[in-house]
Design brief:
By secondary structure, this protein is an alpha+beta fold. It has 3 domains: 122 residues, no CATH class; 96 residues, Phosphorylase Kinase, domain 1, CATH 3.30.200; 165 residues, no CATH class. It is built from 22 helices and 11 strands. The strands form 3 sheets. Strands 1, 2, 3, 4 and 6 form a 5-stranded antiparallel sheet that branches. A 4-stranded mixed sheet has the order 5-10-9-7, covered by helices on one side. A two-stranded antiparallel ribbon has the order 8-11. α1 crosses α8, α3 packs antiparallel against α4 and α13 runs antiparallel to α14. Keywords: Kinase, Transferase. InterPro entries: ABC1_dom, ADCK1_dom, Kinase-like_dom_sf, Mito_struct-func_regulator, Prot_kinase_dom. One of its GO terms (cellular component) is mitochondrial inner membrane. Belongs to the protein kinase superfamily. ADCK protein kinase family.
Length: 519
């Protein structure tokens, strides 16, 4: 057994060496021997576990399912330990995997979610070094005070509270010193290891994860790009008075240091905080849904990292209104117009339970014959609920268990689907899962109001697109009238739902019932 594990480790190491040696743009000596060895050893042990643990057990039996769950759990724990040890890019990718609820077996998502709270912290000396290199001054020259303990630490950076010489309280985001140099090498190492695993398990299709990391990590490591994104989304959503985006202080910002307005609040999934501070949980959930529907369907510019640490809530002491504070603008997805229109029409079909149009637009988005699985992944609902109408009934505990079980059972099909859909879809799926996690924590998941807000945005987006393509004044007027009528119908239905759930509505229904009986 040990001999076979050693052979597998040797195979991985040899393949990695050949691949790296053949890459003329990269010096293999730039890799830390310990980091590479740790990654190879972990990959070999996980692979060997899957190869041997299930070999003599009948497929589909209760014992097989139990053992498979144990292998998933052991492998997830080993992967988590690897991410914590290698830090940086490994933690970032591990966090991404942990956010893929309903796409990966629960053992993986549950185990890897803790990486959000186990990110590394740079030392004071390392922070001073980065600020000195980027801003050319010492911390004491720039700030009256600078808190040593970070407000939060993530895979790529950490944030400190400080006070500038002019008295402004700011949040200082500082990149971990070694991340920039290690990121490209870490991604290359992951690519090699995944290619080897795919040779052993042909159904293993996770190269999309490496491709996404290749594309997104350089953007996330450029803090000037993050600042521009913050200003763009603040302007884009300026009509939402409940949204707050920290102001960027450009004079003290670089690619590795970002100074912004200091804002604080409770995490968006902290129901106890909201109840303690008199914040309406349903209103927060509803407004968060409005924000993301507007970003996805109307603007096609989407904040793709809405985990609870990046979305805060706070009650304004003056107005009494609850504000949503959106942080960490490093990762945005720009949706092409054709993709956005197909995605709008797909969601309209899902909400209306229009199976014919649902199949049509799922296929146009790359799902092919796996369109039923695609619909379930998008909605996190069972196929039965999708057919019945996802707005007809909330998610039950049994349905939730069924979906999670199917994620493990259909893993090969899910990975195939993720390889086939447009790259734009991958971050949207991650964003959907993060938002569902927030809704689940707040116990507001799958409310009818959230689907109504989505419908409004889809109608507005499609109508705007149709008007832009029409050269006839009469046709544009028709589109505008149809849009107004559809929005009016949604408003009327929303009023009906409000009356149905309110005390006034109960009185009206009771009165009408008495009048009916009396006649």
């Amino acid at each position: 057994m040990a001999r076979r594990a050693l052979k597998l480790a040797s195979l991985v190491a040899a393949t990695s060496g050949i691949y790296l040696y053949g890459n003329k743009f990269l010096d293999p000596n730039d890799f830390g021997v310990v980091r590479v060895g740790r990654a190879i050893a972990t990959t070999a042990v996980i692979t060997y576990d899957y190869l041997t643990s299930l070999r003599s057990v009948p497929y589909g039996s209760e014992e097989y399912d139990f053992l498979k769950s144990q292998v998933h759990l052991r492998s997830a724990e080993r992967l988590r330990e690897l991410c914590c040890a290698n830090r940086g890019t490994f933690i970032k990718v591990g966090q991404h995997l942990g956010a893929l609820d309903y796409l990966l077996p629960e053992e993986y998502t549950r185990t890897l979610k803790v990486l959000h709270s186990q990110a590394p912290q740079s030392t004071r000396q390392e922070i001073e070094q980065v600020i000195r290199e980027e801003l050319g001054k010492e911390i004491e020259e720039l700030f009256v005070s600078f808190e040593d303990t970070p407000l939060g630490a993530a895979s790529l950076a950490q944030v400190h509270k400080a006070v500038l010489r002019d008295g402004r309280t700011v949040a200082v985001k500082i990149q971990h010193p070694k991340v920039q140099a290690q990121s490209s090498k870490d991604i290359l190492l992951m690519e090699v290891l995944l290619l080897v695993v795919k040779q052993i398990f042909p159904d293993f299709e996770f190269m999309w994860l490496v491709e996404e990391a290749k594309k997104n990590l350089p953007l996330e490591l450029d803090f000037l790009n993050e600042g521009r994104n913050a200003e763009k989304v603040a302007h884009m959503l300026k009509n939402f008075d409940f949204l707050k985006v920290p102001r960027i202080y450009w004079e003290l910002s670089t690619r590795r240091v970002l100074l912004m307005e200091f804002m604080e609040g409770g995490q968006v999934n902290d129901r106890a905080y909201m109840e303690k501070n008199g914040i309406n949980v349903n209103e927060i959930s509803r407004n968060l849904g409005k924000l993301y529907s507007e970003m996805i369907f109307v603007n096609g510019f989407v904040h793709c990292d809405p985990h609870p640490g990046n979305v805060l809530v706070k009650k304004c002491p003056v107005s009494g209104k609850a504000h949503i504070i959106l942080l960490d603008h490093g990762l945005y997805q720009v949706l092409s117009e054709s993709f956005r229109m197909d995605y709008c029409r797909l969601w309209q079909a899902l909400i209306k339970a229009d199976m014919k149009r649902m199949q049509k637009y799922s296929r146009r988005l790359g799902a092919g014959d796996l369109y039923p699985l695609f619909a379930c992944m998008l909605t996190a609902r069972s196929w039965e609920s999708v057919n019945r109408g996802i707005d007809r009934s909330p998610v039950s505990a049994s349905e939730d268990v069924e979906i999670r079980s199917n994620a493990a059972a259909y893993l090969p099909q899910i990975t195939q689907l993720l390889n086939n859909v447009p790259r734009q879809m991958l971050l949207l799926l991650k964003t959907n899962d993060l938002l569902r996690g927030i809704e689940s924590a707040l116990h507001t998941r799958a409310s009818a109001t959230s689907f109504l807000n989505m419908s409004r945005c889809c109608i507005r987006a499609v109508s705007t697109y149709q008007r832009s393509r029409s050269h006839s004044l009469y046709r544009r007027a028709q589109i505008t009238l149809a849009e107004a009528l559809s929005l009016w119908q949604i408003n009327l239905y929303e009023l009906f739902l409000w009356l149905k759930g309110s005390q006034l509505g109960n009185w009206v229904i009771a009165l009408l019932s008495r009048m009916h009986h009396s006649t």
